[in-house]
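Two proteins follow. First one:
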Amino acid sequence: MKKTIKIICVTAACIFLGLIAYISFAGRKEKNAEQQYSFYYINSEETKLKEEKYTPEKETAEVMLRDFSESLNNCETREDGISLFPEDVKISSYSIKDGILRLEFNEAYSKMSRTRELLVRTGVVKIFIQIPEIDSVEIYVGKKPLTNSKGEEVGAMNSDTFVEFSGSDGDVYSYDTFTLYFTNKNGDKLVEEQRSVRYRRNLPKATVVLEQLARGPLEKDHYPTIPENSEVLSLTKANGICYVDYNSVFQDYALNVSEQIPIYSVVNTLIAATDVDKVEISIEGNKEVTFGQNMQLYKFYEWNDSLLASTKAKKEQN
């Protein structure tokens, strides 16, 4: 009898321990299933990032750093896009200190166009910030810190540094009133127009206001500032600056207005609607162009009060 009871107790204990082990394993499995990683590349038009699932062999900084660096340096292509790095751009070394990943690139990094470099920079941060132990990313070209077009160091970047604008579908809508800047009859001053817009909440305000600007004014004695068929090819925000890339229609079919009007129509509208304080405009990836006779696009444009028909302070951001 005692032997039977002993066997029953041992069996029950085994079942109990097995159940605990199973629950623990299932919990770990569920936790791992929830943790998803992504790798990024560029679409065929070279206007935005595309995402694909990445499953690491081990979820450690060492393994993931190796995988990501090798994949990027190998310039792996995709059927529906191109590699994040141009063929000659490489990560030459990396190191982690106090949660900051320092990536050193070869000199070819500085030869990229501004549009491509922004895509590369955004993709690099999105990829490496996923790694355990990494809170932010610093980019160096050789031994020198990466700088912007004004020569200022970009510094450490994290998931909040970049906001990519896209028009993906969503089910929730927002309703806001924006201030758009069109022109007067003479085409030499900007006039304000308030416009209430219902839009998908996951569509950034910068995209919304530029779409509305292209549609033209609705109020009497307000006139368009940019060609109706002008198209925004890419729109990226980083470090308080909005980078807008238009198709050639923006320049080739410019309206009969003062050359400052189209530029500052875009600039003032974006600054009023978002949290940026500077805007850089390019034409099909090229900013080494002159708009009109004197408007150099290779610069950051800021809010302009002097062109307003009635001078007012900058509107509060929506």
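Second one, unrelated to the first:
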Amino acid sequence: MSRDARWKALLELLVEQGRLDVEEAAAALDVSAATIRRDLDQLAEQQMLVRTRGGAVVHGVSYELPLRYKTSRRAAEKQAISAAVAALISPGEAVGFTGGTTTTEVARALAARPDLTTGSPALTIVTNALNIANELAIRPQFKIVVTGGVARAQSYELIGPLADGVLGQISLDVAVLGVNAFDVVHGAAAHDEDEAAINRLLCERAGRVVVAADSTKLAARAFARICPTDQVDTLVTDAAAPDATVAAFEEAGVTVIRA
């Protein structure tokens, strides 16, 4: 197994379990404990995790890994979701994007649409996600508006009260919302309260709200609520979403698209 493959596998295990034991990780990956210790030391140097005696734990209180190491998780589902979300957006609209791997894929899908290669602007993009702004800034047909705030390393999102000044003065046609959890009763939520606050502002400024979430995030709860279910117009998820869960969202007035 290559080093990159081991690192990916270790980070996936860490996301699932919250902590790693050197001996257990070595057995799971069929490599020596010395190799795992070296890998964990190198990942800790890059602030991907925190080393502990005998293993490692996730980095940061929000229990998230930096975006570049989360992108490959459920990649096929996210690409299908992103294509379906992109199809809901019309030329000339003002679109708000929260951060996250799925919303990043939506931005890429919009950049690839042939009907959005020209326009003045073809779309207006408002986002607090530095990586999304960076990817779309090279598209001259897109007008990019970035909120103020302090960068959060785990998700590349700008958070804090500095964003209020921008978001309080704009109107959006649609907000594309990435979430950590979406439950019919408890609504859309994120792990971090500052992230949730900015996402909530984007939703409040939008004419319609689209949640882009793979099926593992449905019927789940997270610490900080973004918005109640009745503020969401459309949920775009993957084909693995259970029928009962989909039916519950539809009964609550949410249009559900299974990509």
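SUMMARY FIELD: The first strand starts at residue 19 and ends at 21. The CA atoms of residues 42 and 153 lie 18 Å apart.
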